[in-house]
Amino acid sequence: MKKKWLFPILLTALLIGCSNNVEPTENFVVGVKNVNGETVQVLNTTVFLRTYSKKAFNKLFPTYTSIIQRVHKESDRYNQYNDYSEIYNLNKDKQLSNASDEVLTMLNNVIELSELTDGKFNPAIGPLIDIWSPLFNNGTNNDPSAADIEDALTKVPSSPLSDYIKIENKNVQYQNLDLELDLGAYAKGFALEVANEAFKDDENPLMIYAGGSSIILKGTKPYAEGNWIIDIDNPDNYLSSVAQLYLKGTHAISTSGDYQKYFLNSEGLRRHHILNPHTGYPATNYRSITIYSDRRADILDALTTALFNCETDQEFVGLIDKVEEHYELDIEFVYVKKDGNSNYLGVSSGAKEVIKNPKLEVREITC
């Protein structure tokens, strides 16, 4: 849900310093048509592939396009397609027969992640999204009514999600007819992981990108001294950055922030799209969170949402530790948080070693 018109700026920054022996080649994945013939943007964001040779790009891009479009159709809850409308149909019919292997994988993973994060990541917040989402586009400064939020919360599972979704063989059945899944906080990372797996035998360095909120960097960048340079956006001015991460080698990266899709309510409170499934309101403790590891963009995609709903740094770090142990990952983080009237950067010890050009105070978080 990054603003797609930021892409040319990002592109310019990433291409600076390119040597004459390297030919960065990239393109967008085009939208898909729903059953009404309307064009739908894949994963509701800008998705592209970049390689550093035209030959590699021509080989990989058709496969990449096919994967992204397929996962979008499988996971889109808002549109029906002539094929792959699985989450749409599951929400509509409250059951799904002969689900695809990818959809079963997504469902099992989001159920596991929801329970692992104690519901801080909850893919069943469709009713909450439905009352908040229209407000980001109509110029309002009014929250949904307290009654509407309370009603939506009654439809959001508060106990383990496995109590609400029964999966047997390839058949899925909702145990509660109010259930409404929304995989928007997971599907981008999952799609990139599927693409990355398809490219595992290809040795060309590449970047696969979904709106800046999910990125996979593969191999050694052939310029900039091998550094992949990732901007940490300034939440108060998204056309600038507050620091960069200089990363070498293969990485999965996820970012969530309160500045991509928001409005200020009548009390001047920032209301953004990352909703706390326990309160029904947008989380307020962090401005942005970036995490990275050597793999599992799908896990990281969901985890940034869960971390946004943490109340304290102790809870934040404890949740990362829990996910690291469960999935055998090493996760580093950078967050932007407000202290009084100023923002600062909270970083893990590993991120502190690779953060460059900070424009805010850097604090190592060791709880």
Question: Which short descriptors sum up this protein?
Answer:
367 residues, alpha+beta, T-fold, nine-stranded mixed β-sheet, three-stranded antiparallel β-sheet, 10 helices, disordered N terminus
Kindly describe this structure:
The protein has 367 residues and is of the alpha+beta class. The chain folds into two domains: 251 residues, ApbE-like domains (T-fold); 84 residues, T-fold. The protein contains ten helices and 19 strands. It has a nine-stranded mixed β-sheet. A three-stranded antiparallel β-sheet has the order 5-7-6, covered by helices on one side. The N terminus is likely disordered.
What count of helical segments does DSSP give?
10
What order do the SSEs take from the amino end to the carboxyl end, as H and E?
HEEEEHHEHHHEEHEEEEEEEEHHEEHEE
Radius of gyration: 20 Å
Distance between the termini: 31 Å
Please summarize the sheet with the most strands. Answer: 9 strands, mixed
How many individual domains? 2
CATH topology of the largest domain: T-fold
Shape: globular
CATH architecture of the largest domain: Roll
Q: What is the residue-mean pLDDT, rounded to a whole number?
A: 93
Query: Considering the protein shown, what is the CATH homologous superfamily of the largest domain?
Result: ApbE-like domains
Strand content of the residues, in percent? Answer: 15-25%
For the biggest β-sheet, the strand order reads 1-4-8-9-12-15-16-17-19
